[in-house]
Each structure stands twice: as structure tokens, then as C-alpha cells.
Amino acid sequence: MMPERAVRLLLDEDVWQGLALVLREAGYDVIFVTEAGRKGFSDEEILAHAIAEGRAVLTHNIQDFAPLAETYFLQAIEHPGIIVARQFEKGKLLRRTLALLDTLTPESLANTLRFV
């Protein structure tokens, strides 16, 4: 059973789509970019959609999302958080993601850049 205030996620299109299914089975509120109708959108548009939906972004795209996080910080623009992961093998990605999510609340993730 997930905590009532568990982190909600939007998985970027570069993330293994099966991760959304497994995290849902674990009780997390997770959607994949294509499910949100945002496939092919820019990183800025993805983050804007995540903010509107109250979801943190999980991505492998550190080269674009780290500068976005810095820009948002410098401009004092609030966001639900950004989680970046290296291209791990699927099982390792799942284990590391669950381990991180188990330590976070929406409040502790907000306005931060975290690494899986």
C-alpha cells in the first residue's frame, strides 16, 4: 500500500515503457508521455505538462533536463521535481526507482533534480 501522498510520475518517452506498468502495480500513479498525448513534444513542453498535472518527470535525458531544472531554480519557477536515470538494465532501473520513490514525498521532491 502506497502512502496517501506518494509521488506522481510522468515518464519521458526515452524511458522503458514497462516501468510505468510495474510502478502502477506497486501502487504508484504513473503515466507515460504517449499516454498523456505528448509524444514528440519538446522537453520544455513535457515539463510544463508535468507541472500542470502535478507530476514529477522521470527521464534519461540529463543533458536537457538538468539545464531546465537550473533555469527553473534561477527563475523561481516551481515544479514537482525531475528524476534522471542512466540507461540501466530494466531490473536495475526498477529497483533503483522504487528505492528512490520509497524515500520521497511530493514535498521533498518538489523543485529538485534527483538521480536514480
What does this structure look like?
The protein is an alpha/beta fold. It has a single domain, classed as Rossmann fold (3-Layer(aba) Sandwich), CATH 3.40.50. Helix content is 41%, strand content 14%. The protein has a five-stranded parallel sheet, sandwiched between helices. Helix 3 links the parallel strand 3 and strand 4. It starts with 8 loop residues before the first strand and ends with a strand.
Task: Write the element-wise H/E pattern from the N-terminal end onward.
Answer: EHEHEHEHHE
What shape does the CA trace take? globular
Q: In angstroms, what is the radius of gyration?
A: 13 Å
Sheet with the most strands, sense and barrel status: 5 strands, parallel
Terminal residue distance: 22 Å
Low-confidence stretches: none
Q: How many individual β-strands?
A: 5
Give the helices and strands, then pairings.
Layout: E1 9-11, H1 18-25, E2 30-32, H2 43-53, E3 56-59, H3 62-74, E4 82-84, H4 90-101, H5 106-109, E5 113-115
Give a quick rundown of the structure.
This protein has one domain: Rossmann fold, CATH 3.40.50. Helix content is 41%, strand content 14%. The chain is an alpha/beta fold and 116 residues long.
